[in-house]
Each structure stands twice: as structure tokens, then as C-alpha cells.
Amino acid sequence: MTTPATALLTLLALLTLSTPAWAQNTSATSQQPKATTEAKTTAEEDSTRVVILGYHDFSSQKEATEMLITTDSFRMQMQALKNLQLNVISMEDFIAWKKGEKEIPDKSIVITIDDGWKSVYTEAYPVLKEFGYPFTVFLYTNYIDGGGAALTTAMIKEMQKNGCTIGSHSISHPFPSKVKKEKAKGPESFTKYLQHELGDSRKKLKAKFGTLVNSYAYPGGFVTDEMLPVAKENGYDCMFTVLPGKTRRSSPDLLLPRYIILGTHDNIFRDATTFKATANSAASDGAIIQTNMQPVSPQPGETIDNRLPLITVDLSKVANIDPENILMSIPGYGRVPASYNTDTKTLSWQVNRRLRSPSCEVSVKWKTTDGSKYKRPMTWVFNIDLESSYQSAPLK
Ligand SMILES: [Zn+2]
Known about the structure:
By secondary structure, the chain is an alpha/beta fold. The protein folds into two domains: about 5-270, Glycoside hydrolase/deacetylase (TIM Barrel), CATH 3.20.20; about 295-390, Immunoglobulin-like, CATH 2.60.40.1220. Helices cover about 25% and strands about 25% of the residues. Helix 4 links the parallel strand 5 (about 85-90) and strand 6 (about 110-115). Helix 3 runs parallel beside helix 5. The longest helix has 23 residues, at about 185-210. The site of zinc ion has 5 residues, from strand 6. Zinc ion (ZN) binds near residues 114, 115, 169, 173 and 219.
């Protein structure tokens, strides 16, 4: 983000920000003061907080990537929302709340899915239907019926009957470089271009699916100031970025935060589902969902008061593990010299430099003797109560 007027909200930026510190960062959008005042809602503030989750692709076959979550993990996340008693609401209810027309419970969740991959229908939709969760698909019109891995009109229409709201994700899903190129051609031409991407996509979706399209997700999270008046003029109520944070009623409607759930970064879902206390509601811990999890110590989400813990992973359940190829890494420490005990099948590392952050993320990956590639890393986060660790262990 180089200027307050232009926000380049790439997923890369999201990654560098992906520490628990921004779990409660609702001020993200206030870095754009001009847009904030312009897009601010007039409805009276309440104490409700909403989390917008953003997904992309799903698979029960392929390994997870940033943009692809395994169907298993997705299902566990949906179950976690239920276990945490978080209230999943539709985009319609979200917008009505934003406008001050409706009350919704604190700690509500909106589920959104970008781009229009076929896996939305084959993998995510059955899970969402099972849980009875409403959801929104942000579609870019050029990709619908695009063959191969694209959603078809028929699939989308069927999902509409079961809780699916349609939002726009432009016509062509332009990369930031393309948008910048168009902007360089001058304001008049740029406005025309934005009218096409934002306005025409809305009209096309409306015509095709017979529904109002009131929400938009900026492709790649890329926003420029010029987009906001065009969005308004075209009747959008809510526009979503990829910058994480809790949404309040007063959050700027055209620059709303969203937690993009990356298939390989379990802590994002945890941060999204973690809420601080307010005057009306107690703090609540989020859920960390892992598919590749083995028993560990300290445990996921556990808060310890020792800044020099012994970190262990019980790998006895992993078939054919290759003891020569087991790696542990910790941000700030890099790859650490963890040792693997072939008798107990336990990997362990004694932290040798005091942990300085309130949380510690550990990643462990391994090869098996029958495969040449590293398996998807197993990642978990535990917390350190820094204050009490100073008191209880002043010499450390
Ligand atoms: Zn996209």
C-alpha cells in the first residue's frame, strides 16, 4: 500500500501480514481515509462483528495449495463454525444489517467463494447444503460455462435454490497490471473500462440468473479510488477486499475486509474465528483445523508460560516415514535442528532462544520411504503468555 488512495491488496501482502496480530485488525480499511468517508454507512453503529470468509478452489484428490483447500479441511472448518456457535448468515442479511434494516447476532459469519470453480459445486456445495449454510459465489462472467474446471450456468442455478447468492467478480478478472495499464490510458477511458468490468458484469449476472447482484469482490483484492464511485453508481451495496479484519456496521461498505482462507495456512481460519471481548460479549478462541495433524506438544491453541518449551511431535501414526527427511521450521528461527527418536518415533526440539512473540507457529514436514516428495506440512500454533512467563521464570 504505497498511497492512501491506492490499495494494492495482494495475497502476498496478506501473507506477510498473516500473524495473529491482525486477527482483530478492524482498522485495516481506515488506511484509506478518502474512501472511508465516501463509502461510510449511515446506519447506527452496534456492537455486532461479522467475519467474511473467502475461499477459492476445493479438492478431495489434490494436495492443498494457497488457493485450494481440501474438502476435508473445508468440512472441518464448517463443523468448527457450528461448534463455536458462530452464526452463518446470507449476503442479503449481511447487507440488510449493514444498512441498519436488520439485526444479526454478534460473531456472524458470511461465506464467500471467488472465481467460479466447478469444485464449488462438486466439493463445497454438498458440505454447505448439509450444514444449511448460505453462501455467496463471486463470479467473473467470462469464466461461467468456460468448460474444464469452470462452473456451469445449470450448476449455479441449482445452487441458487439452496442458499447461494450471486455476487460479481468482474467480467474478465483483470490482474493489477492490466488495471494499471487501463488507468494509464486516461480517466475517461478508465471510467469506461470500469463501467464494463463492474457495471456490465452486474447486468450480465442479473440477466442470466434473474437475481439482484449487490456485492462485488475485487479481483486479486486490487482496488483503486476510481472504482468506488463506479461501484456506487452501479448500485452495489458491498465491495470486498482481501484484507483480513472484523467487519463492523460502520466499516466502509465499498472496502470491506475479508479473511481469505488459504489451503496451506491453518492459522488464518483460527484468526478469523477468534473474537476479542466487547462490552456485550466475552472473548472467544477460534478453531485451528488441520488435516495432517499428529499429536503435538505444546498443543494447538494452548497457552504456555514457558518461553523455552520443548516442542514435540508424535509421528508414530505416519506410515513409512523417512527418518532422514523430517524437517521442523519456525518463523524467526528458520529450520531448526529437531531430532527424531526412531524408538519413540517422536520428533523434538528444545527451543534454545526465548520465544518473543505471543504466538509460535511450528511447521513440520516429512517424506515417506515410498515417495520422493515432501508431504504437505503440518502446521500448528501455540501461544505464550509473555507477561506471566516473565513473572514465573525471571531468569529465563
Ligand atoms: Zn479471483
